[in-house]
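User: My collaborator sent over this chain with a note saying "see what the structure looks like." That's all I know about it. Can you take a look?
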Amino acid sequence: MTIIPGPHQLSGRAVRFLSALILTLALLLLAAPAFGQQDYVARFDAYGGYAFLDSPHVSLFENGFAAQAGVRPRRWLSLGFDYSRTSGDLTLTPNLLLDSLQQSLGAQLTQMVAAHMIPANYALVVPTHSVTQTFAAGPQLAYRGMKHATLFWRPVFAGIIHEVATPMPTDAIATAVVKQLAPEGKKTDNVMFIGFGGGFDILLSKHIGWRTQADLVYDHLFNDMLKDARFTVRFSAGPCFNFGGNVAK
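Assistant: Without extra context I'll predict from the sequence alone. Here is the result:
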């Protein structure tokens, strides 16, 4: 049976990305005295770029895109909305399920082994394709002490995750189990999540920049079937656009 990391663990990939982001933020902050402050801070901003979601507890890594839009009531404060759509594959194993489902499946498989319907070493494994959409909103705090870079933090934000999981069983036993757990051939769920994060914009011109950002969110998708909540890292990078009048100092 596959060993899955605990719900409070992050994958090496996620740790590397978060560490690199924190290091870059620290270096930019240390370099702040060498740069002048920003004269122009646009009232509005928009963003679109590559995104990934990494949920190590279920060994799910998804690639896709993200988009954002925001308004700046103050130079140091933005209020915005973001959306992402990603997809990827994971492997469902019994240890991820609710204890009651594990016991029920275990009893069924034991009976089948006793009846010589399956070998004693049979392992239930169900490859699954996932498509995830996130919708989030919240405040963002900005540091603009550098002329060509902006640091920002999201102390807390909330949103909804919409996920569609489509099992793709590879044997008759797994197919029968999927029919029990997902009679329609797929599972769909919508849950609230909370998170925090941050990033930075490299300002290439007055209106165009390059944004790099990462968030850590917590949710419990499919709680009628999966026993654990999970942490998910959302990472995104791409061009950002600033427009509108200059926000007064």
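A starting point for your reply to your collaborator: The radius of gyration is 22 Å.
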